[in-house]
């Protein structure tokens, strides 16, 4: 039937196109900051209200725009960065598509104030929903200020998909920090609800900016590397094997100073760290790849977060080889970025002592509910002294293997217990019970413990202070990025409080967008249990193994640790006979 296919109305088409570029307030922050950087600014100020839902204002002291260029800049595909198709393969700027400003203007109410250095007055343009309402002269400093209000006011359906103020602020902050990290020669300021959250002064040394954003602890464990060959330059900073994270958030990849999410380079980084850090852990790496524009296609996606390489194989092997060489402690092929930062990996090459031999020990009755399909019995099911259990299972500890697994023997076969997973589960249940019964007490330090946090960690801590306090922590800010730990839960009797708090913040930063308050508390409990539990490759004495196994009584063999890893592995007598071909 003719007439089924129709051309979309221009307003609808513009809304669809804008949705590819502007997903949330953070997208506006990213695009406006990139425009400010391209304008040659030495100072950029980002101001948000209500997480960017009410107001986003980005001001710079760059070159500004001539009065006649401002209305043109609000039209789609209007740009000063390229002139023809060939220029797409000679791009040296962060922006080039001419979609950012018109996309923002079509979904919000924006005001632009701008002045070039040669002019004594500036220009103000007011635009709503893509329609220019007024253009007038105005007194303003050299540079450009773009004010964006009520994002998605004309697309209420899309506005409903936005998250909470805290979550949207978190997204915007991520873009702010990524761009700040890669442009240390520019001063950046981030203001939210009239409060300055971060201020990064311009510096000639990238180390200063790294320490400001990532914190001193990470800074102390980073080494600089640099390699240049055949038109390709790789430089950056990588963490020593002594430090790692539970997520990949510490990996920053920049191609021609543009932050990208590239699987190829990410895989090369992880391959370089393979067998150097524990499985499931991630390094901290800041990698800058400078490559001829003709060898990389940045016009893959409207957000410009993805790229394609002309010779991906070469990029992969060069990145992996450079990092591997740096980690092996071999001389760099290029000069280090900063004198005085020396490489020393010898202190991390330690070998754990082998556990002493143990004799089999009987510990009496264990697990009255043996079937793997049954759920874990409750604590009240545990036998009290003198209680006769219908089905007694005699189990004895044979010993420990690999310093990690406790082996028990029972008439039906062998039970292997992961000591870390088991102890983690025991502690989690203990901490959870204390929290639910409001029986948590705090242990106050005579001298508070100072702790320095990165910008991201500081934001996460300020967002979850209430949950920390409910768990028995007392943490106060005493300076920019510096906090004092005054008290901790009394059940934490081992470990470094600073490392414990940072471990919790790392987990919380990873799940901030997904969890509610109760799940945040559970994340804190799990992290505390994990950090307090005995580790693998740690020899246990006989009485320690006995105590561990006795506390596992309430749990069935199908129980996992709080992270979901199995605690038990049962090897039946039938399986053993089968392996040895016994009938």
Describe the structure.
This protein has 583 residues and is of the alpha+beta class. It folds into three domains: 10-202, Heat Shock Protein 90; 207-340, 2-Layer Sandwich (Ribosomal Protein S5, domain 2); 355-583, 2-Layer Sandwich (Ribosomal Protein S8, Chain: A, domain 1). 31% of the residues lie in helices and 25% in strands. It has 17 helices and 23 strands. An eight-stranded mixed β-sheet has the order 5-4-3-6-2-1-7-8, with helices on one face. Strand 4 and strand 5 form a beta hairpin. The longest helix is centred in the N-terminal third of the chain and has 18 residues, at 165-182. The protein is elongated and about 90 Å long. Mean pLDDT is 80; it is low at 330-393.
Note the main attributes of this structure.
Heat Shock Protein 90, 3 domains, 31% helix, eight-stranded mixed β-sheet, 583 residues, alpha+beta, Ribosomal Protein S8, Chain: A, domain 1, 23 strands, 25% strand, Ribosomal Protein S5, domain 2
What would you report as the Rg, rounded to the nearest angstrom?
Answer: 29 Å
What can be said about the biggest beta sheet? 8 strands, mixed
Distance between the termini: 74 Å
For the record, what is the CATH homologous superfamily label of the largest domain? MutL, C-terminal domain, regulatory subdomain
CATH fold-type name of the largest domain: Ribosomal Protein S8, Chain: A, domain 1
Low-confidence stretches: 330-393
CATH class of the largest domain, named: Alpha Beta
CATH architecture designation of the largest domain: 2-Layer Sandwich
């Amino acid at each position: 039937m003719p007439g089924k296919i129709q051309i979309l109305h221009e307003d609808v088409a513009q809304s669809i196109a804008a949705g590819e570029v502007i997903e949330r307030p953070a997208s506006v922050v990213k695009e406006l900051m990139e425009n400010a950087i391209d304008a040659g600014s030495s100072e950029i100020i980002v101001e948000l209200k209500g997480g960017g839902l009410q107001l986003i204002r980005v001001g710079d002291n760059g070159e500004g725009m001539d009065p006649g260029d401002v209305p043109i800049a609000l039209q789609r595909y209007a740009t000063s960065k390229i002139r023809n198709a060939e220029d797409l393969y000679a791009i040296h700027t962060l922006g080039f598509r001419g979609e950012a400003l018109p996309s923002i203007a079509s979904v919000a109410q924006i005001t632009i104030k701008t002045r070039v250095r040669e002019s004594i007055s500036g220009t103000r343009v007011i635009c709503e929903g893509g329609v220019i309402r007024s253009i007038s002269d105005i007194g303003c400093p050299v540079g450009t200020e773009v004010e964006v209000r009520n994002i998605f006011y004309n697309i209420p359906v899309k506005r409903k998909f936005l998250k909470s103020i805290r979550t949207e602020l978190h997204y915007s902050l991520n873009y702010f920090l990524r761009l700040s990290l890669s442009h240390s020669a520019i001063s950046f300021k981030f203001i939210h609800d009239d409060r300055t959250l971060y201020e990064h002064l311009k510096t000639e040394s990238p180390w200063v900016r790294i320490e400001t954003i990532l914190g001193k602890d990470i800074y102390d464990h980073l080494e600089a590397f640099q390699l240049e060959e055949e038109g390709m330059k790789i430089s950056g900073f990588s963490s020593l094997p002594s430090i790692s994270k539970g997520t990949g958030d510490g990996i920053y990849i920049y191609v021609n100073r543009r932050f990208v999410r590239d699987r190829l380079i990410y895989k090369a980084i992880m391959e370089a760290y393979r067998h150097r850090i524990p499985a499931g852990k991630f390094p901290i790496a800041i990698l800058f790849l400078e490559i001829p524009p003709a060898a990389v296609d940045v016009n893959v996606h409207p957000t410009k977060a993805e790229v394609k390489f002309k010779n991906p194989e070469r990029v992969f092997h060069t990145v992996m080889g450079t990092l591997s060489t740096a980690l092996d402690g071999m001389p760099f092929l290029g000069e280090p970025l900063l004198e005085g930062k020396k490489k020393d990996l010898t202190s991390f090459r330690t070998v754990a002592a082998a556990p002493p031999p143990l004799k089999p020990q009987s510990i009496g009755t264990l697990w009255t509910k043996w079937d793997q399909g049954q759920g874990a019995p409750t604590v009240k099911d545990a036998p009290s002294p003198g209680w006769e259990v219908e089905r007694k299972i005699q189990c004895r500890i044979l010993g420990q293997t690999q310093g990690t697994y406790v082996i028990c023997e029972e008439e039906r076969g062998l039970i292997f217990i992961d000591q870390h997973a088991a102890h983690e589960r025991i502690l989690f249940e203990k901490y959870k019970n204390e929290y639910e019964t409001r029986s948590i007490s705090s242990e106050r330090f005579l001298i508070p413990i100072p702790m320095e946090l990165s910008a991201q960690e500081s934001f996460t801590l300020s967002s979850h202070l209430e949950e920390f306090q409910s768990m028995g922590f007392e943490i106060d800010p005493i300076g920019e990025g510096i906090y004092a730990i005054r008290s901790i839960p009394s059940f934490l009797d081992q470990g470094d409080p600073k490392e414990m708090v940072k471990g919790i913040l790392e987990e919380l930063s990873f799940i901030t967008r997904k969890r509610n308050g109760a799940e945040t508390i559970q994340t804190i409990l799990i992290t505390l249990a994990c950090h307090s539990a005995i580790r693998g490759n740690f020899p246990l004495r006989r009485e320690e193994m006995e105590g561990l196994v006795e506390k596992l009584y309430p749990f069935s063999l199908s129980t996992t640790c709080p992270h979901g890893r199995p605690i038990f592995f049962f090897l039946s007598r039938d399986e053993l006979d089968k392996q040895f071909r016994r009938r």
